[in-house]
Amino acid sequence: MTFNCIIVDDEYLAQDLLEGYVKKMPHLKMLAKCNNAMQAIEALQKHAVDILFLDIQMPDLTGLELLKTMNKKPAVILTTAYSEYALESYEFNVVDYLLKPIPFERFVQAVNKATELIQLKRKPTQVISSATPALAPTKDHFFVKSNHKSVKIRFDDIYYIQGLREYVSIFTKEKRYVTLEAMKNLEDILPKNKFTRTHKSFIVSIEKVDAVVGNMLEMNKKQIPIGKTYRKEVMRVFS
């Protein structure tokens, strides 16, 4: 299966780096390189794009402003030199947020997340029929439908859960599971003394949080955003 990509970045060196990474992955096909948001709009109208590699800081129209104009979005992977946009970016259900300079390993991780979500979306009927029944929990675990099979996930193995539109990614220490499910359904079955909602797109394991820094939680070398709606409860949990 081939996934069509476009790169949007006003820095030519950044474009060349991403283009080189794309060429290393045979299942990716680059359709266009764009220097600004207006060129990106034209490319998105012209091509069927699966993955959009999008810089944030660009003249005239930023990457986040571009996302606000789009009703139907491809899988978006943000690329930026600025970490301060991470919290705002999650409001757009982006697949991943890559900080420049981008290591190839980190690029591959982001692409794998995007392609898994795209494949689920292309074959939704194989998941929907058994997604919700499979959630039935027991005392220490529950089952989800992932990769066409029911997988047992122990509560104690979960680090955090990220919602991406109608899908969720469940992150454990060893693996990530992608399933078609609502965040609310997962929130309802997770033990309240072990998990807390920090953002419309995130649920975290309380015991696995290492630190609270401003509007972010730090855990396992990952930063999890704290949304305004959930901040009061998060501060209570970690006070």
Element layout with pairings:
Elements: E1 3-8, H1 12-23, E2 28-34, H2 37-46, E3 51-55, H3 63-69, E4 75-80, H4 86-89, E5 96-99, H5 104-122, H6 125-131, E6 141-146, E7 149-154, E8 158-164, E9 167-172, E10 176-180, H7 183-189, E11 195-199, E12 202-205, E13 211-213, E14 216-219, E15 222-225, H8 231-237
Parallel strand pairs: 1-2, 1-3, 3-4, 4-5
Antiparallel strand pairs: 6-7, 8-9, 8-12, 9-10, 11-12, 13-14, 14-15
Based on the model shown, name its key terms:
239 residues; alpha/beta; Rossmann fold; OB fold (Dihydrolipoamide Acetyltransferase, E2P); five-stranded parallel sheet; five-stranded antiparallel sheet; globular
State the gist of this model.
The chain is built from eight helices and 15 strands.
Verbal overview:
The protein starts with a strand and ends with a helix. The relative contact order is 0.09. The chain folds into 2 domains: 3-122, Response regulator (Rossmann fold, 3-Layer(aba) Sandwich), CATH 3.40.50; 125-237, Beta Barrel (OB fold (Dihydrolipoamide Acetyltransferase, E2P)). With 239 residues, the chain is α/β, with parallel strands linked by helices. Helices cover 31% and strands 33% of the residues. The protein has 8 helices and 15 strands. The chain is globular and about 50 Å long.
CATH topology of the largest domain: Rossmann fold
Provide the gyration radius in Å: 18 Å
Total E-strand runs: 15
State the fourth-level CATH superfamily of the largest domain. Answer: Response regulator
Q: Which parts are unreliable, with pLDDT below 50 for 5 consecutive residues or more?
A: 124-133
Order of helices and strands: EHEHEHEHEHHEEEEEHEEEEEH
